[in-house]
């Protein structure tokens, strides 16, 4: 189990994704299909104090990334496939299983602006809690905070009570 601050985790996962796919993209052309990296298990403490620390674990990762580079230098990472995970409340062993299968797109613009758009099932762990979104979501890739969304939202912390 790793205890990683959320801001570091969000950046690390994003950096792994970019590093893992950019080399293949430059070598193989558009689009380059690569397996999406599986993040490590982490313990987060973002729910209410009565829930306490929660273990986040990816149980199935069958997602892949396709890299597209436009003439202006914009790079888009299209993420598709299946991803499932569990959240376990460490104080009592309560478990919530989730489907976090995108699809999603991370776009890196030439000016350095990065956008993350989810169009399906998204699980977001950030300073406000653990949330599952079904529908379209726009996420701040640096913080993991959902900036806008449409569709259903489920509070995973509430389910772990």
Please explain how this structure is put together:
- There is one protein chain.
- The chain is α+β, with helices and mostly antiparallel strands and 161 residues long.
- It has one domain.
- 17% of the residues lie in helices and 50% in strands.
- The chain is built from 2 helices and 10 strands; from the N terminus they run αββββββββββα.
- Strands 1, 2, 3, 4, 5, 6, 7, 8, 9 and 10 form a 10-stranded antiparallel β-sheet that branches.
- Strand 7 and strand 8 form a beta hairpin.
- The two termini are 22 Å apart.
- The relative contact order is 0.17.
- The N terminus is likely disordered.
Q: Hey, roughly how much beta strand do the residues contain?
A: over 45%
How many structural domains are formed by the residues?
1
Report the structural category: alpha+beta
- What about the largest sheet? 10 strands, antiparallel
**Total number of helical segments?**
2
What's the total number of strands?
10
Report Rg: 16 Å
Question: Which outline best applies?
Answer: elongated
Task: Write down the secondary-structure element order.
Answer: HEEEEEEEEEEH
Share of helix among residues?
10-25%
Task: Summarize the SSE layout with pairings.
Elements lengths: L5 H23 L3 E4 L6 E3 L9 E16 L5 E15 L5 E5 L4 E5 L5 E13 L2 E11 L6 E4 L2 E4 H4 L2
Antiparallel strand pairs: 1-3, 2-3, 3-4, 4-5, 4-6, 6-7, 7-8, 8-9, 8-10
């Amino acid at each position: 189990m790793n205890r990683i601050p959320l801001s570091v985790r969000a950046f690390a996962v994003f950096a792994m994704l970019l590093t893992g796919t950019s080399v293949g993209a430059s070598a193989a052309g558009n689009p380059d299909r690569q397996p999406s990296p599986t993040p490590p298990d982490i313990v987060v403490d973002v729910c209410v104090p009565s829930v306490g620390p929660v273990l986040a674990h990816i149980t199935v990762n069958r997602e892949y990334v396709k890299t597209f580079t436009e003439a202006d230098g914009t790079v888009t990472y299209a993420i598709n496939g299946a991803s499932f995970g569990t959240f376990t409340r460490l104080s009592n062993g309560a478990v919530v299983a989730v489907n976090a299968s995108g699809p999603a797109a991370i776009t890196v613009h030439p000016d350095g602006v990065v956008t993350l758009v989810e169009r399906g099932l998204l699980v977001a762990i950030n300073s406000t809690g653990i949330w599952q979104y079904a529908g379209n979501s726009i996420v701040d890739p640096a913080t993991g905070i959902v900036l806008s969304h449409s569709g259903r939202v489920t509070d995973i912390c509430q389910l772990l009570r």
